[in-house]
Write a structure and sequence with these properties.
single chain, 6-stranded parallel beta sheet, 18 strands
Length: 906
């Protein structure tokens, strides 16, 4: 613990209106004596005891979560680094050079269509010492004895990680030369993208704020795996590197309370406080380190500040009156940035010149000596001591607030300048200065071609580099593409038979209930049951899932210390240290982060787990779409379920709840397989197929199913339609045979039942036969059609492939009408793949939702049975088999308001 700075009686007395300065002096002298005799730890205990006693006696003692603007760890308390400082410095220099060369070459030697490929140098420049310390001394790779530490690298620092991997022989010079040039298959991704480098990167972090919140839930998930006996994660740590500017993202700080509440001492945040965001200072008028210290300490974290490097230690030791510490506190971050963008003379004038006593303190130092006064994040010994303290702290998560310089070593081009983040090109003179500053053995003649540098394998540097990683289990980052274990999935009928049968009269259920029953069946399976991870966000009873509380319990690290109010009921709220449910409260982002942790468990923990995260209507793809996209990048495997889906199914809830577009959002995620099932048997078939693909075959896909809260009779599975369900379309109910006029009605979700009702109206009122098709996935039908279309374009001499939609409808005559509880674009996707010349009309729920009954909402959005009939008749008129007058007759018959405003504008 750092020594407490001496308090100044004169200033304290003046500020507080001290009535008895002499008595105050005696108290302060007593404190000084206590520190001198028994150390700052004892002083801290006594002060805390006094504060507690004062508060209990009604004394108003304001809370402060801040400490002095100095390092938390006193110099005498630092654990010494066991590393070879000189060799590590040389290795860092080579990696700095290679990272810089990689970015500059991409923009100088390989212009993309006359433009710039971009890239970032300044972030790694500020992080190199911290990364080097972690790689050399702290971060374990997966081994038989250690599951491996998980590192969330700061996204913009990727070139530095590639530079190290190149030195280790994991990447080639050719790959470095193709940084951000991936289309040919040999380049390196711009940022940490597991999808693009599946054996290298583990986590997507460059979408600001997602790394911190995902990491918190990842650390919690490691504890969950351990508590449930699925994997031994006791030795593993989660290290998270964030920028101080990134902490302004709400997600960055949004879950730090959870980390403290659950005592995640396997979690270490390292906030790279280079005082700059992308465009300028983070807190030019303030102090970001002090602000973050208060945020984290107030939330219950262990906070370690690393602000000053070793060259400051002698000055701080001489600061007996605390003037230096006071100036350190007074100087604003905007001024600190300016000082590192200038020189020693500037620092002498604008920092030490604030008090004559400070100028006297440094009068023996040259401007070069003053310029050499370093920040803590660039001091290997200080960084090692901070990392060691964080890694060995128990009972709390730890945050390291480490002060650095953005663009460190980049000189006039970028060092501590507002433009640092955007700098991707350097002049020849800038490159020469960089080489000289870090003593890189590249000749003047070779500088224009920016060669990468790598020492010979038998040099001390290379031996040291490889030995350090060998001692820690191997290279990092590394990603496991498949789990070593194999979990067989039972046959469909063996596990989900009840959902495949028609429901008896009076036993109507919703697809949400069907899902819950499937989940219960799965939980009973001896092999898969323990690997199921139900994730809930405080809507359990809405979905009829409260029975799981008693059955499998809610995960709670401390168990249940209270008696739940519903303890006397069958389905009481039960928390348990080995509980299986992850109940996240009203917290969709947290639910999604837990889902990602479980959905990637096969990779980070070599254990397959099957997450089922059910969310409430709109509060899924719309609210947490960025996390879902990141899940796709991270090759997640699991089930997302949109409960009470559709614009008209969630009656009564209104505009901000009713989901009519999540299926369109799902269609944009390439490895998301999405369905809008109508019936229980469709739910069962889809869930089973998903488990076969993700669990048994370990395919890198995930599934999204939208579910309904509307109860109705279930027809049961038609034999032989399983494959068609998965492809997205099957004939649900044929119309009468040998009827001259015929139409094809397509539907999904709740509105398919309106199509079935329209089938009856068409036959009864108009003598028209209608074949009704259930289309559980217009998205999959569209993907299939696009794939066939592309193949035909590229293989003109081959037999053309026929889209599945075309195959299904080709032998069924008549105009086609598609109606769903989603916007028209959902079903419009398949228009190009219908049989040639076929009329196609799409009904959908475009526009804002609103509250009312299902009947009124479906009429408002023009997707009910009457509008389906009208659209079908319109198709027959257009093909010339029905007189136009029939349309007006139908409008009158069904009371359709032709002057009503279109829902898109209403």
């Amino acid at each position: 613990m750092a020594a407490l700075p001496e308090l100044h009686l004169s200033s304290l007395s003046a500020a507080s209106g001290d009535a008895d300065p002499q008595e105050t002096r005696e108290w302060l002298d007593a404190l000084d004596a206590l520190i001198a005799a028994e150390g700052p730890g004892r002083a801290h205990f006594v002060l805390e005891s006094l504060i507690t006693e004062a508060r209990q006696n009604g004394v108003d003692v304001p809370f402060s979560a801040n400490t002095a603007y100095v390092n938390t760890i006193a110099t005498d308390d630092e654990v010494r680094s066991p590393g070879n400082v000189e060799i590590e410095e040389r290795l860092r220099a080579y990696m700095r050079w290679n990272a810089m060369a990689m970015v500059v070459r991409a923009n100088r030697l390989h212009p993309a269509d006359g433009g710039d490929l971009g890239g970032h140098m300044a972030s790694f420049a500020s992080l190199a010492t911290m990364y080097g310390t972690g790689f050399n001394h702290f971060w374990h790779a997966p081994t038989a004895e250690h599951g491996g530490d998980l590192i969330y690298f700061q996204g913009h620092s990727a070139p530095g990680i590639y530079a190290r991997a190149y030195m280790e022989g994991r990447l080639t010079e050719d790959q470095l030369s193709h940084f951000r040039q991936e289309v040919g298959g040999k380049g390196l991704s711009s940022y940490p993208h597991p999808k693009l480098m599946p054996d290298f990167w583990q986590f997507s972090t460059v979408s600001m704020g997602l790394g911190p919140i995902m990491a918190i839930y990842q650390a919690r998930y490691l504890k969950y795996l351990h508590a449930r006996g699925i994997a031994d994660t006791s030795k593993r740590k989660v290290w998270v590197f964030c920028g101080d500017g990134e902490m302004d993202e709400p997600e960055s700080l949004g879950a730090i309370g959870l980390a403290a509440r659950e005592k995640l001492d396997n979690l270490i945040f390292v906030v790279n406080c280079n005082l700059q965001r992308l465009d300028g200072p983070v807190r030019g008028n303030g102090k970001i380190i002090q602000e973050l210290e208060a945020e984290f300490r107030g939330s219950g974290w262990n906070v370690l500040k690393l602000i000053w490097g070793s060259y400051w230690d002698p000055l701080l030791a001489r600061d007996k009156d605390g003037i230096l510490r006071q100036v350190m506190m007074d100087v604003l971050d905007g001024d600190y940035q300016a000082m590192k963008a200038n020189d020693g003379a500037f620092v002498r004038k604008h920092f030490f010149g604030r008090d004559p006593r400070l100028l006297k303190m440094v009068e023996h130092m040259s401007d070069e000596d003053i310029w050499r006064l370093n920040r803590g994040g660039h001091d290997p010994q200080k960084v090692y001591a901070a990392f060691h303290a964080a890694a060995h702290h128990e009972g709390q998560p730890t945050v390291l607030l480490v002060k650095t310089i953005k663009g460190y070593g980049m000189g006039r081009a970028a060092e501590a300048r507002n433009v640092a983040h955007q700098v991707k090109k350097l002049t020849d003179e800038d490159i020469r200065e960089f080489r000289d500053r870090f003593n890189i053995p590249v000749s003047d003649g070779d500088l224009p071609r920016l060669p990468f540098f790598k020492p010979a394998d038998d040099t001390p540097e290379m031996s040291y580099l490889m030995d350090r990683r060998k001692a820690l289990g191997g290279p990092l980052p590394q990603r496991r593409e498949k789990a070593d274990e194999h979990l067989p999935v039972p046959d469909l009928k063996e596990i989900f038979q009840p959902m495949l049968e028609a429901t008896a009269e009076g036993r109507e259920i919703s697809t949400t209930q069907a899902y819950v029953r499937c989940l219960n069946q799965l939980l009973r399976d001896k092999t898969l049951g323990s690997r199921v991870v139900p994730i809930l966000v405080d809507e359990t009873r809405t979905f009829g899932m409260e029975g799981l509380y008693r059955q499998i319990g809610i995960y709670a690290p401390e168990g249940q210390k209270y008696t739940p109010v519903d303890r006397g009921e069958v389905m009481y709220y039960r928390e348990d240290k080995q509980g299986q449910i992850l109940q996240e409260g009203i917290n969709e982002a947290g639910g999604m982060c837990s889902w990602i942790a479980s959905a990637t468990s096969y990779s980070h923990s070599n254990r397959i787990t099957i997450p089922f995260y059910i969310f409430y209507s709109m509060f899924g793809f719309q609210r947490i779409g960025d996390l879902i996209w990141a899940a796709g990048d991270m090759l997640a495997r699991g089930f997302l379920l949109g409960g009470t889906s559709g614009r008209t199914t969630l009656n009564g809830e209104g505009l901000q709840h009713e989901d009519g577009h999540s299926q369109i959002m799902a269609a944009n995620v390439p490895n998301c397989i999405s369905y809008d099932p109508t019936f229980a048997h469709e739910v069962a078939v889809i869930l089973h197929a998903g488990m076969k693909r993700m669990v048994e075959n370990q395919e890198d896909v995930f599934y999204y199913l939208t579910l309904l809260n509307e109860n109705y009779a279930q027809p049961g599975l038609q034999k032989g339609t399983e494959e068609q369900i998965l492809k997205g379309m099957y004939l649900c109910k044929p119309g009468k045979a040998r009827v001259k006029q015929r139409v094809q009605l397509l539907g999904s979700g709740s509105i398919l039942r309106e199509s079935l009702a329209a089938q009856d109206l068409l036959e009864q009122d108009w003598g028209v036969a209608a074949d009704v098709w259930s289309c559980p996935s217009f998205n999959e039908l569209a993907r299939d059609g696009k794939a066939a279309e592309r193949w035909n374009l590229l293989h003109p001499a081959e037999t053309p492939r026929v889209p599945f939609v075309t195959q299904q409808l080709d032998k069924h005559a008549g105009p086609v009408v598609a109606s769903t509880d989603y916007v028209r674009l959902f079903a419009e996707q398949i228009r190009p793949f219908l049989p040639k010349g076929r009329s196609y009309r799409v009904l959908g729920t475009d526009g804002f939702g609103r509250s009312d009954t299902r009947t009124e909402l479906r009429r408002h959005f023009e997707v009910d049975r009457h509008y389906i009939v009208l659209a079908a008749l319109r198709g027959l008129v257009d093909e010339g088999t029905l007189p136009t007058a029939k349309l007006a007759e139908a409008i009158a018959k069904y009371g359709i308001d032709t002057e009503k405003m279109f829902s898109l504008y209403a």
